[in-house]
From TrEMBL:
Keywords: Cell membrane, Membrane, Transmembrane, Transmembrane helix. The lineage of its organism: Bacteria, Bacillati, Actinomycetota, Actinomycetes, Kitasatosporales. It is found in: Cell membrane. InterPro entries: AA/rel_permease1 (IPR002293), APC_superfamily (IPR050367). Coiled coil: none annotated. It comes from the Bacteria. It is a multi-pass membrane protein. This is APC family permease. The chain crosses the membrane at residues 28-52, 58-77, 98-117, 148-167, 179-199, 219-240, 252-271, 301-324, 351-371, 377-404, 416-441, 453-475.
Amino acid sequence: MTDSPTPYGSDPPGTASLRKSLGVVDGFAIAASSTAATTSIGIGLGVTAGAVGLHLPIIMLLGFLPILGIASAYSRLNRVEPNMGSGYVWVGRSLSPWLGFLVGWIGIVSTVVFLSYTTTVTGSALLQLAGEGGLHTLAGLRLDPDSTAQSTVLGIAVLIAVTFTAITGIRSAANLQKYLLVFEYVVLLGFCGYGLVVGPHPFSLDWINPFTIPSGQQLAQGLLLSVFCYWGFESSFSVNEEVRDPQDASRAGLITLFTMLGLFLLGSFAFQRVLSLDELTGHGAQGLTYFGDRLADQPLAALPLIALTFSAVASLQSGVIPTVRGMFAMSRDRTLGPLWTKVSPRFGTPAAGTVAIGCVAAAVAVLSLVIPKVGDLILASVNAIGVVVSVYYALTALAAAARFRGLLRESPSEALRAVVLPVLSAAVLFGLGGYLCWSFYTSADHFAISPDNGWFMLFCPAAMLLTGVAAAAWAKWMRKSPYFVTGRSLTPAEPAVTEAA
């Protein structure tokens, strides 16, 4: 074998490209659906209240602050190097290819876990909706929305449908999500606004006082759970090669983030005005249904549940879309196999990869049946994802600080946004994740598959990280990916085909 001036062995290979068809509103629809405010409010607030009690508003605000620094890093990096691989590309170039691969891998695995439990949540929401409509048994089987088995089977059917929609074109998927979002937000604003006014529980300054949270562990867990609620705003950056102007991806991500802050604060205050702490923590995946029942009679009381169902369906679809795009970027660097860069000539989308990721998510959803209750499954998944998301957000922020560190001498105002805020945000997220992992480790003396077992809660994110190291080693030494030689990611060799608006 002869030496070559490039790590590819010859000229760099041409790479597939996707159609440019999206604008700011489309990017916002994808990112907002991925963040899934309705699902986060309807389910995530109850889970978070279990950690911090009646301090949801201040936890949502505090969790927003480091995420704002992360968003600043994403926006600045996207300005100089728009790439659907986002953190995988930026961290690999600015810090280390190994860390870059790990960022990409965490994004894949955490989204697959997210898709698996959202599949179950979607099925649970549909079963709740059937119960509200008077359908409590089917073919002699009692329908139970808290049954992981029943919810998973029904949710997988929905996952198949939204995967097909994602295949047929990202523009059609974004249009569907726009309509779903409009309905969700109208219902959320109406019910939460009404609950804020008529709720029986008085406002309390304690709700916005973090110093009355009982322990540091509860504060750390609450903050990571709130970070999880904001997770997904960066989905707009995963489609930045399909946006007509790549900077529209940054605008969509920031608009999404501030929209989520407003909705989460509104939902937090409204839920605490209407529900007691026991009601908040006791209804789990059915929290939004109970909230609606407290504020209205049927059929109006069913509207929040319908909104939750729409949110879960949209987040399934928007979870598939950015994950496949990230794998597309990794595949064209040969850090993943060639399956993920196969573009459908009919639809202009990575159809094969979309089908594959849907199948993997369905398989993980089936494996999650070892945890028999939906609420327990949600708690285990959210904690695991919260830890690993804090890692890949923090690494992306450090990549921005490393790349733009020269601004510290040239432009203090620009350095504040591109270096200082990302570094502070990364330090907060690393600290939260590390503290929570230590508290998981010290809270148990044996292993059990239960969201109440600290070692199990530590095992889940550890497994995600360790499999990433193994996959990186395979990509470097078996696939011989040039990414590990150059630290650079490929971009499409030819301009992408532009689809008519």
